[in-house]
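Human: Can I borrow your eye for a moment on a structure tokenisation matter? Separate attempts, laid side by side, tell us more than any discussion would. Could you pick a protein and write out its sequence and tokenised fold? No explanation is needed for now; the record alone will do.

Assistant:
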Amino acid sequence: MHKIFEKLKEEFFAILPPTIFFFVALHIVTFIRMLMTKGSHFEPLSTVSIAVASLILGKAVLIADLLPPINRYPDKPLAYNVAWKTTIYLVVAGVIHYLERLIDFSRQAGGIVPGNEKMLADMVWPHFWAVQIILFVLILMYCTAHELVRVIGKEKMLRLFFGPAPLPAF
């Protein structure tokens, strides 16, 4: 029974950083989408929906990190893994963003095919790409921080950011 609690505690603390990151990031994206679509029929996601999405994304990132293709460049400079992971996560985020919009338009049009046609005709593509750019920057920040923690170590990163500051080496 003790091992189960230890495993649950380990999983909880592993999923916490990406979940918090995506919770904040998705709120930023929702806020920006609200500002871009002010006066339209757009209804933003609720905080509960964003929390559930954050938990799913946090766990998905942890699972993806266990797959061999995701850590393709472990012995190269960090820029390789950051660029690789950012590309993969951005493609997945783009697909999810497209499907999210497709669901909205499919409800209005009464089906997926008519919804896709309506979306391609009616969607404000600069808004779509603006959200993608924001997601790119946020995902790039996440991947950069994640790779730095992987190389430097969690304890040292926490110490660097929150103190006490390490003694200077002479």
